[in-house]
Amino acid sequence: MSKTILIVGLAAALLAGCTQNIQPTELDRAIIGAGAGAVVADVAGKSVIKGAAIGAAGGALCDDVRLCQ
Q1: pTM of the model
Q2: Disulfide: which of 4, 19, 57, 62 matches 67 by Cβ 3.0-4.6 Å?
């Protein structure tokens, strides 16, 4: 189970890098983050809704901390 979570997390991080050339808005990043958070939470056996909410917040705010520029 730990390997699966690691692989899914790595895949989500790699997919997040694909948005760099399209100049995503905060809404775009929030949607991508929500999807990634939901998938990771589902694989981990946790609440998908909470995972999506955390992912959406992280996606929307990642540019504010200069993490996804």
Answers
A1: 0.68
A2: 62
